[in-house]
Amino acid sequence: MDALSNLWTLIQYLILGVVQGVTEPIPVSSSGHLIIVRELFNIEARGLSFEIFVNFASLLAVMLIYRKDIVRLIVNTWKFLFKGDKTVKSDFMFVIYLVIATIPVGVIGVLFGDALGEALSGTNVVGITLLITALSLWIIRNLRGRKQDGDLSTKDAIIVGLVQSIAVTPGISRSGATIVASMLVGMKKETALRFSFLLYIPVSLGTAILEIPEIAKDPAMSYLWAPYLVAFIAAFIATYFALKWFMNIMRHGKLEYFAYYCVVVGILVLIFL
């Protein structure tokens, strides 16, 4: 029985890792889907330490995909600051806007993140917020912005940052919220996508660093290290391919499909969970 129980535990965490990986980059809320799957399969992976662990796997996959942009921004910021190269000012300002947009969610996360996560982790909340996500995606489905990387402003960064802070609520997709906000301020789809996922990096990395003490003292880590590792690997692989898929969808402007999906899942959650 122990062997079967251990196998079932591994399968459960494999499912959680795949769900995290697939739903993190697409605008349907990974945190909301983890809550739904836990409820459906009665998985006791409670608390933020597991979510942060698999979220870090998704972060590594995002960084792998955007590695060229990351290196370019770092190198050009160095050139602008220390070599006075004015030709790379747009990349330097892009980094500044990412920093500005990170501040609101950083403040809210530090002050209220744990409390909000616990208070709003019910399935009813997830169902309602998925419907809100659906409405937001529907509103921007046909927008065609003109702003590219070099056309952004401090106001744009503040708006996107404030909207991103709402995504601490389970069921509100972080990628969805930031892409919606980016497109509403006039960014082109490609710019909105890049800004959203490069913005994800400091937010996720900061969260992981701040929560290292909590992860270290989590008693589940001592006896669930193998399921956690399985979930980590699954989340990394699933995020990589899901983001590649989503990038292709964004190029063809099919965001309404995610709106339909969020409506269906949101209604089903409210009815049955």
Automatic annotation (TrEMBL):
Q: Where are the transmembrane segments?
A: 45-66, 92-113, 119-140, 192-210, 222-243, 255-272
Q: Which GO terms describe its cellular component?
A: plasma membrane
Kindly indicate whether the keyword Metal-binding belongs to this entry.
Answer: no
Annotated PANTHER family: UNDECAPRENYL-DIPHOSPHATASE (PTHR30622:SF2)
Record's bilayer topology term: Multi-pass membrane protein
The places in or outside the cell where this protein is found are: Cell membrane
Miscellaneous section:
Bacitracin is thought to be involved in the inhibition of peptidoglycan synthesis by sequestering undecaprenyl diphosphate, thereby reducing the pool of lipid carrier available.
What InterPro entries would the database entry show? UppP
- Which reaction does this enzyme catalyse, per its entry? di-trans,octa-cis-undecaprenyl diphosphate + H2O = di-trans,octa-cis-undecaprenyl phosphate + phosphate + H(+)
Question: Where does it mainly reside?
Answer: membrane
Q: What is the lineage of its organism?
A: Bacteria, Bacillati, Bacillota, Bacilli, Bacillales
Instruction: Write out the similarity annotation.
Output: Belongs to the UppP family.
EC number(s) reported in the record: 3.6.1.27
Gene source species: Oceanobacillus sojae
Look at the named UniProt entry and state the broad enzyme category this protein falls under. Answer: hydrolase
Q: Give the UniProt record's GO annotations in the biological process aspect.
A: cell wall organization; peptidoglycan biosynthetic process; regulation of cell shape; response to antibiotic
Q: Can you name this protein?
A: Undecaprenyl-diphosphatase
Query: Any idea which UniProt keywords this protein has?
Result: Antibiotic resistance, Cell membrane, Cell shape, Cell wall biogenesis/degradation, Hydrolase, Membrane, Peptidoglycan synthesis, Transmembrane, Transmembrane helix
* Its job: Catalyzes the dephosphorylation of undecaprenyl diphosphate (UPP). Confers resistance to bacitracin.
